[in-house]
Amino acid sequence: MTDESTMTPRKATLRCAFCLKLNRVDLDRAADRPVCGDCARPFLLDRPVKISGEDLDRVVRETTVPVLVDFYADWCGPCKIMAPVLDELAADHVGELLVAKLDTDAYPQVSASLGIRGIPTLILYRGGVEAARETGAVPRSALDQMLVAP
Length: 150
Ligand SMILES: [Zn+2]
Hints:
- The two termini are 29 Å apart.
- The protein has a domain of 103 residues: Glutaredoxin (3-Layer(aba) Sandwich), CATH 3.40.30.10.
- The chain is an alpha/beta fold.
- The strands form two sheets. It has a five-stranded mixed beta sheet with strand order 3-5-4-6-7, with helices on both faces. Strands 1-2 form a two-stranded antiparallel ribbon.
- The structure holds zinc ion (ZN).
- The site of zinc ion has 8 residues, from loops.
């Protein structure tokens, strides 16, 4: 047994943006630009990935690193303020954190089931369970705080 085998492999379940196939993405090799097993096009993990309402549950349950989901809408001003902050966060934590975006206009039933009243709402999931939540535009320091919270 090596030390490595005792560690949980870092994996994410993500849908390919091109062919829409669900993939198990090896985040330990995130820096090597993982590609879709079906169409061989890349997963871009240094920026937030768009996910659908149908995929949310599966993505947060099957991804072994924390998942920060930005529940946003295109018309929302504070969401636009958050976008570059989330881009930066994703780029700083490639392979350690999955940053995802979910369009609340496209999936209103998801917002309702999660009790989301304002956007942006940022929910951090660990092991498929909500661990922290922030509503409204927040500074990068607030996101960093969410990541270290137990
Ligand atoms: Zn593909």
